[in-house]
Amino acid sequence: MKSLIKIVVVALWLGNYAANAQSYVFKVLANKGDNSVKLEGADWTKLKTGQSLNSGDELKLSEEAYLGLMHNSGKTLEVKTPGSHTVSGLAANLKSKNTSVASKYADFVMNKMSDDEGSGDYRKSLGATGAVDRALASGASIKIMALSSSEIINDEVILRWNEPKQEGEIEDLSYELTFSNLFDETIATETVDKTSYLLDRSKEPFAGQNFIKVKVQVKGEDLKSDDYAITIKPEEETAEIKEILEQLKSEIEGESAMDKLVMAAFYEDNDLLLDALTAYEQAIQMAPNVPVFEKAYEDFLIRNGFTN
Predict the structure, then answer these.
(1) Helix H segments across 199-256?
(2) DSSP 3-state assignment of 149?
(3) Contact call for residues 78 and 257 (beta carbons, < 8 A)
(4) Is the CB of residue 91 less than 8 Å from the CB of residue 71?
(5) Whole-number Å distance between alpha carbons of 78 and 66
(6) Radius of gyration of the CA atoms of the chain, in A
(7) Contact assessment for residue 38 and residue 54, using Cβ atoms and an 8 Å cutoff
(8) At 142, is the pLDDT very low, low, confident or very high (cuts 50, 70, 90)?
(9) Among 74, 85, 73, which residue's Cα sits nearest to residue 47?
(10) What is the DSSP letter of 28?
């Protein structure tokens, strides 16, 4: 009799555990606008970043809203159409296929990001698509947001640096970038009026260069950076990384801001920090003024010592 009671108790406990352990359908990763949710059996409430959504739930999006959802498979979904949506309907829009790699990096993203939207104005510490640090310990020097020697695997990477601290304001601030090769021979000079530059290794004079050194200086002023080296990760070390990268790209499919966030997680996990920085900036360009993307980027910069 006691054994029978024990079996019934264990069965009930397992049943309750299974019910409670049912997986969510989506997690709300990014939420912009006056959006609301109706959980199954409950009333409409304000939708929150980090919230779990199940198949019986409904959503209502405001005008000019943006919703970034992370499916339990690791796939991402952007919702921008105002009005009502069912969670089951949104899930049905996703193609079913193996997403083992995407799921891993979706978890990486979720673990790195806060569950709340935050109340700070990230634009105070971020430029149009990147960070501006005016309080460097080194005074007026420029700091490029990279390691002193960085490996990359993509042809295009964004170089980002701080706007330097100086006495008084300099009107019409512009920057001169000097690029040199392994033998300290100058291969290019570029002048820009913003704190970023898109380096494209597929174009001359950078094509075929496996080592590129860059220095940034305020044009006409003694405000400059140290030398930073950018190297192409050797082929013998990238075969496995590129294989996983191709699988990840096939799983997430689209070129959305959410996809770029997952890609950034992959690059960071593999110590490809310039590639990661580029993916973060691309995400912000695709979904501007979505605070959670800006905060994720800011946290990345701080986490890797690129800014204070």
Answers:
(1) 235-252
(2) strand
(3) yes
(4) yes
(5) 7
(6) 23
(7) no
(8) very high
(9) 85
(10) E
**What is the C-alpha to C-alpha distance for residues 180 and 193, in angstroms, rounded to an integer?**
21
- pLDDT one-digit tens code per residue, 266-279: 999 999 999 999 99
**Tokens at 95, concatenated:** 């193609």
- 175-212: per-residue pLDDT in tens? 999 999 999 999 999 999 999 999 999 999 999 899 99
Amino acid identity of 164? P
Instruction: State the Cα–Cα distance between residues 83 and 71, nearest whole angstrom.
Output: 21
Question: Which DSSP symbol is given to 176?
Answer: E
Give residue for tokens 């555990």.
Answer: 17
**For residue 232, which amino acid is it?**
I
Phi, psi of 199, rounded to the nearest 5 degrees: -90, 120
Q: Among all chains, which residue has been given the structure tokens 């992959």?
A: 266
In 68-94, which positions are buried (b, 16+ CB within 10 angstroms) versus exposed (e)?
A: bbbbebbbbbbbeeeeebebeebbeeb
Contact 139, 258 (CB under 8 A): no
